[in-house]
Amino acid sequence: MSKALEGVRILDMTHVQSGPTCTQLLAWFGADVIKVERPGVGDATRGQLRDIPDVDSLYFTMLNHNKRSVTLNPKTEKGKKIFAKLIGECDVMVENFAPGAIDRMGFPWEKIQEINPRMIYASIKGFGPGPYEECKVYENVAQCTGGSASTTGEIDGFPMVTGSQIGDSGTGLNLALGIVTALYHREKSGKGQRVTCAMQDGVLNLCRVKLRDQQRMAHGPMKEYPQYPNAEFGNAVPRAGNASGGGQPGWIVKCKGWETDPDSYAYVIAQAAAFPALAKTIGHEDWLEDPEWNTPEARLPKIDKLFEEVEKWTMTKTKFEVMHILNPLNVPVGPILSMKELAEEPALRETGTVVEVDHPERGKYLTVGNPVKLSDSPAEVVRSPLLGEHTDNILRDVVGMSDDEIAAAKEEGAV
Ligand SMILES: CC(C)(COP(=O)(O)OP(=O)(O)OC[C@H]1O[C@@H](n2cnc3c(N)ncnc32)[C@H](O)[C@@H]1OP(=O)(O)O)[C@@H](O)C(=O)NCCC(=O)NCCS
């Protein structure tokens, strides 16, 4: 079975998380990803948050599967020549350095186009053009400037960042889509193009419904927010705790064992169509005849009371029992699964979403596999490369250098 992106060669100048997420995904689809790293140093994440001394961190290994690593310094004279040759031999170049870093290496977009007019040059930056375009950005800065933090958190609490890496990995996904779209376009135009993704834009895109709500506020209180009907809304979209954000009310409720297990909770959505079944299950058949409860409009001002009653019932069941009882009744419900539970879930192992990988220096570890499944191009997760593991190989086979030339380049510190 061939891989979807077989034959596509990627010059991977990415580091940390956002860019590597993108190129890892393309590698899983079958692209040949050549990760360029600074000689002797490599991607900074190799050494960050290390759990085992002198071994590539999980941070690095979990973001750089299926890639080859070449060490190269494009700031040296010989390094520039090798880098130019790699640009000529690759289809896509991806980078997420601080603004201007690739230009400072001597490779602005114009030069890249001159070397290889078919090259697709893809970048992630913190911000798009504007007042902040020169800024360096990490995940939480993107969450804060993209609208996520201001709309996440307890109702009367401070802004909150989420544990999901929506700025880094989220933007990496956007970039991957941009790249395959540009590759598709190149089939027709014969030309490469620039693809740029800003992390602020990526986060705001994921917060689309909150910009929707900002505009709805001009036309009266938003009745699905917990602030309705008793609290003030202010002039910007407020934080809404665990309210569902959609048209159906939902909340996180305690389940049996919550006193000792911090994840013994479930999210329950009181969808109108399934409300009679939910009410009966929690012992409130009386609500079905009661005009104070039997319409969504009547329930809206007392959603907190509704979930208090739901919780009285869920506290008598484990989160999995809650799921098993409510799902067949078409009540949407999700147990709060811990990372431990996800790591141990057999179904996720079965689908390749959680994968065990063997690494020559660290041994076996778990990673998240490709979340996108293609029926004719299955992804196989291959361990991340050691620093410079494929340098000789790539210089010989892709750049076309002789052994003597490779030795000379090493001598000069170019590779
Ligand atoms: C993530 C970020 C904040 C990290 O900042 P940083 O650690 O200071 O690293 P920078 O990107 O500024 O710089 C990397 C430097 O290494 C140099 N470098 C990178 N690869 C190199 C190589 N193979 N050989 C020699 N030098 C290299 C770059 O040229 C640059 O040097 P310069 O500033 O002198 O031009 C920054 O890269 C950034 O804002 N990126 C864009 C947004 C982004 O993707 N953020 C999320 C990351 S998960």
Number of helices: 17
The name of the CATH architecture of the largest domain is 3-Layer(aba) Sandwich
CATH superfamily of the largest domain: Crotonobetainyl-coa:carnitine coa-transferase, domain 1
Give the strand order, joined by hyphens, for the main sheet.
3-2-1-4-5-6
Secondary structure topology:
Layout: E1 9-13, H1 18-28, E2 32-37, H2 58-61, E3 67-71, H3 77-89, E4 92-95, H4 101-104, H5 109-115, E5 120-125, H6 139-145, H7 168-189, E6 194-198, H8 199-206, H9 208-216, E7 250-254, E8 265-269, H10 275-281, H11 296-299, H12 303-314, H13 319-326, E9 333-335, H14 339-344, H15 346-350, E10 354-359, E11 363-368, H16 391-397, H17 403-411
Parallel strand pairs: 1-2, 1-4, 2-3, 4-5, 5-6
Antiparallel strand pairs: 7-8, 8-9, 10-11
Helix pairs in contact: 1-7, 6-8, 7-8
